[in-house]
Amino acid sequence: MSKYGCMALLAIACSITVPAAQAQGSFFIAGQAGQATYDNSGLSEDKADTSALSLGYRWQAGSITQIGLEAGGGKVGEISDSYSFDDGFLSEEGRIGFDVRYAHVGANARFNFGTNSRWFAVGRAGYMGYKQDIKASYSWAFNDPFLSGLNGTETASESEDGGGAYFGAGIGVDVTPNFNINLMYNGYAYSALDEDGELEDDSSTASTTTLGLELRF
Fold first, then answer.
1. pLDDT tens digits, residue range 114-154?
2. Residue 73 is part of which domain span?
3. Domain count of the chain?
4. CB 51, CB 25: distance < 8 Å
5. Burial readout 159-177 (b: 16 or more C-beta within 10 A, e: otherwise)
6. CATH code of the domain in which 111 resides
7. Taking the model in full, what pTM does it have?
């Protein structure tokens, strides 16, 4: 995983009434699962399953407001592209795909929709660093059995590190005073690292839509 900095941007959100026992703040652990979409993957596929886990702490910042910090990590499943060719003499097959693992650090906030409301909106923003694992394969075979000794397969793999910013917004509902369910949309703007460890000028974008669970303690 590439190095990721200690920056966190404050995001706005809303939350339900916080019990008096939590008035000074609380820790939380949250899990999300859903779908990631690349805006320009370069492959025929642009969607994959994604999941993430984060930990953090929120402080009470008003009667209906909490702000806090978060850190965690996640993964995006593989997307791939493939092709095949057969002219009766030679057949070929090729495949390329990649998956992503990432870590993040940032800020989040919640605002409730009313002092007695169980519904809230949530916002988050920060920095994420990622590692992209790329794998490719190519195989060929001659249909003539006398040329079968020339058949073969080649594989290659490499990794790419990078980083960028993330932001998200969503809505949720408290099932109990310490447990909620939420629906989030997150956007990402990121670049690969060059040989000097600096982010390249060319950037890409992606997004995730996830269903999440959060436990506060």
1. 888 999 999 999 999 999 999 999 999 999 889 989 999 99
2. 20-77+103-128+165-216
3. 1
4. no
5. eeebbbbbbbbbebebeee
6. 2.40.160.20
7. 0.79
